[in-house]
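Supplementary notes for students who missed Thursday's class. We covered one full example, reproduced here. Read the sequence, then the structure, then the short commentary at the end.
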Amino acid sequence: MKWIKTIIARFCGFSLIGAVSTILSVVIMAFLNEVLGCNGYASYVVAYVTTILFSYFANARLVYRRRVSLAECCGFFATYLSGMVVGTLLLALAKCMFPSTNDTLLGCAVLPFTVAWNFVFVNFMLTRRPDVHGAGDGINDKEVANVGQC
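Structure (token representation):
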């Protein structure tokens, strides 16, 4: 039963950081586009890279209680890039299956799959080695009680 509580706590923390990352991404893009007049593609890339870095550091330190590492950061980026590919493929499939459905609605329908994809791989990556406390799975009872309370 403890492992279910652990997974729920991790998912809640992961989701909360994801929500903050999304808001931060919108703010960065709006600032770069509207205030500084940057190219839309450039602002998207800057916002994407910045928020993925933020998300990695926040998840590693706050949710998984781990030291940050370049290897894990690269794995985190790879996970999110693979999630974007999976999401794009699912979106293309959904557009074929429901051609008259609103694109925004289809994009929102794909989100639960990409969130689950990202969580599974990030959870695996950040729990496969001992954490900063040496506990092994990256979380303890105190963290279950305090991290990502839904």
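Commentary. Residues 2-146 form one domain. Residues 16 and 105 are 22 Å apart (CA to CA). If anything here is unclear, bring it to office hours.
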